[in-house]
């Protein structure tokens, strides 16, 4: 797959017939640089939606509908219908490049892409499923009529245990080594005999998914070797910055400017911090009040958040100066720190309107000794996190649920549970941005009190 700046010329020979690609090799297509990134972002929305749904424990039938809606209705459409398959393939290989770079990234991509493949395979017709099985060259043959009759009673027992109808004479079963369908064995959804599992046609998704996952896992390792040995250096000025940014991309609304609640005043900031700041910003705010100083990472994370929730530039300068002056003096603040505050508001340097950090960016940060930025759910010790949650009024029972999400690396879900516990209100969309947390908090408090808290 070659990435170019020129417009791609399509031809009838480019049209791919298969509706479910197996992603065996990168397509020989030229891709515009803009499409390289946009296609990847669209697919990333699908994968993150699936990841969030699975983390929330949605039922299989709910997940299948969610995945297909995300894929076909919301994100992976293309103005030219014939280009949708190409977009599918291109976006997969771009994200394979993005997520091959660390073990943690590979694990997430492998899990979510495999889940997406499972849902898509299940939505295919029986004929299409059999065709896909043949593409994998699976060495399995359907059980003969004689063998089917010899185990029919046992197969019926399994079917009844799952609430399914009894197998009929024309039912198709495959006899496979049991270790190739571990999910079916673990759920007791197959009959086992002498080391083999009898897999119904309706269950062959497990066989195909196992093969798909194995191929993708190996491919990610190979892609990582190519990335580190050649691609990263060759594309350091063009593709590398895009690839390295995509894994921490924020896909939600823009919070660079205050929205529903306009401005916040200095006299109200302490109260608002207690009621509506997410834990990451509340921690930074408290440390600033306590130590009268924050390192650069903390100043950026908190400063841009405050800008996004409506703290005007003059108030921001007054706020930071009042704190820093207690430690470094007013003159030094004006010389060394005021510039950065004005810079964040687009009044210095390139005059860029800087955007508040998203959850993904905060989670992926690496705070050092003496730093207070980052995501508490990821970077705090369990003891410190328990203490911080207790100060926010989180009950012991909810705290265990939060910590369970943290142990499984679902940091944004942990923050969502905290939000729900603090506000006594559900947050169905989940928390994806600190400024979203603030806005949703203020909406709830406004509805309860008749005014913004």
TrEMBL record:
UniProt superkingdom: Eukaryota
Stretches assigned to the DNA primase large subunit C-terminal domain: 270-438
GO MF, one example: metal ion binding
Signal peptide annotation: none
GO cellular component: alpha DNA polymerase:primase complex
Residues engaged in binding [4Fe-4S] cluster: 280, 359, 375, 415
Gene Ontology biological process: DNA replication initiation; DNA replication, synthesis of primer
Cofactor(s) required, per the database record: [4Fe-4S] cluster
This protein's UniProt keywords: 4Fe-4S, DNA replication, DNA-binding, Iron, Iron-sulfur, Metal-binding, Primosome
Family stated for the protein in its record: Belongs to the eukaryotic-type primase large subunit family.
Protein name: DNA primase, large subunit, eukaryotic/archaeal
Annotated organism of origin: Corchorus capsularis
